[in-house]
Structures are given as structure tokens and as C-alpha cells.
Amino acid sequence: MKGFLEYVPGDSLLHRMNPVAKPAAAFLLVIACFATSNLALLALVIVLDAVLAVQCKMVPQTLGLAKAVALFSLVLALIALLFTPQGDVLAQLPWGYIGTESVAAAVLIVVRLVACAVPLFLVFYVTKLTDMANALVKVLHVPYKYAFTFMSTVHFIPVFMNDMAGIMEAQTARGVEFDGGVLKKVRLMMPLCVPLLVSSVRKTNSAAIAAEVRGFNLRTRESGFKEYPFAGIDFAALAVAVAIAAAAIALGVLL
Fold it and tell me: What's the CA gap between 241 and 247, in Å, rounded?
């Protein structure tokens, strides 16, 4: 599996879309997922996610993400199942009961989180961060310093993850065992945050100095030479996303 948010080249329709249209359509799908409780519409979004994954030739990566999100959402679903008694009684608990609507709410949590995670995942994997930041500046007239901040934030996530993995490997070589329960892992990892913080500050300072030396403050919208025009596929994708979001909001209001 590719590294976290590592760009995957290709020639799919999603690859060819405008760097602004892609995240806009993805965020509209996320809004649709959280605006409705209709499982049929959420299933439609999941089918659309599957089609995009196949078209981008990223089925294994998408399945891996869906599995990870589903496992995480199961914790939230279990909390909803045990502590939000709603509907007809299915099982009595010392502090309440498990109801039919509690089961529906738990299923909804899992389906909703999986459905909304995949579009964002695919968009970031098939879009270069530099193109996304430059398109925000060129198309939406976002000040370059804010676009650069966004790009740097996403870029440093895998860097810090690799640093943390290296620190943990060094501690493991010294005899520290990270196997065990969650509380034990948290207790052992808390002291590791100090060297990670020091490394993060050092890297951030070096990046800031490098950007200033290269004339970061002189960068304007006109500095970029690459243009990002919208094409028919961009308008079609946005229209589909708007239609799904509108349907989700309408169903949420009516139902």
C-alpha cells in the first residue's frame, strides 16, 4: 500500500479533473452523508465510491481504508448501541435497553463514516498537493500563504508519522515492549511525544527559513505559470455531487 497521502499517478477521469473541482465534489458527498439517515442514499454513495476506486485502479487501497474506518466506527456504533435506548426493546441492560432504533443508529454510523471517508481518500491520492494549493490560489483567489499552510500541514503528517515510528523502533531496540492494552501503549507513548515535538519544531523552523530565503513573501497569484481551467467533466461531477447533496438534505428535512 502506498504511503499516507502519497500521490498515485494515473489517467482516470478523477485524475484529469480540476484540482479544485475534485475536493469540492468530495466535500459535497461528505455533506450528503451527514445530512441524511437514508441507508439507500448512503448505499448509492458507497456504490459511487466503488466505481471511482475501480476507475482509478485503487481498489486494494480503498478496501484497506474502508476496513480501517469500519473498525474505528464500530467503537462509536457500540457506544450508540449500548447507551442510546430507542425503539422497541430487543434486549434489557442494567442501565437501559437495546432497541430497534439503536441497532439502526449503529449501522448508520458505520455506513455513513465509510461512505464519506472514501471520496476524500481518493481525491487526496490522485491529486498532487502542489496542484491543489496552486489551483486554490489561481481559481479561488485564496492567498498563497494560506494555501501553502494547508499544503505544508498535509505534507508533514506522514513525516511526523515516520518520525514517531522511528522513535518507537529505537525504544523497542532498547527493550521497551509496546504490546499490551491501550492504556499501557498510551503510557509508554506519552514520553515519546517530547522528542517528536523537538523534531517537529526543528523541521518547521528549517522549512520556514528555506521558504523565506526563496522569496515566499513575494509570491502572488500571478507568480504561478500553470493554469487550471474547468472542463465538462468538472461541471458534470459537481452537478452529480450537488444533486446527491440536495437529495440528502431534502430527505433529511422531509423524513
Answer: 10
State how far the Cα of 5 lies from the Cα of 142, in Å rounded to an integer.
Answer: 22
Q: Taking the C-alpha atoms of 251, 49, 30 and 129 in order, what is their torsion angle to the nearest 10 degrees?
A: -160
pLDDT digits (tens, 9 = 90+) for 157-204: 777 778 888 878 887 887 777 776 667 777 777 777 788 788 778 887
- 17 closest CA partner among 65, 47, 52, 42: 52
Q: pTM for the complete prediction? A: 0.74
Length reported for the chain: 255
Angle subtended at Cα 211 by Cα 205 and Cα 215, rounded to the nearest 5 degrees: 145
Bridge-based pairing of strands 96-99 and 89-93 is: antiparallel
> Cell numbers at residue 169, please?
523502533
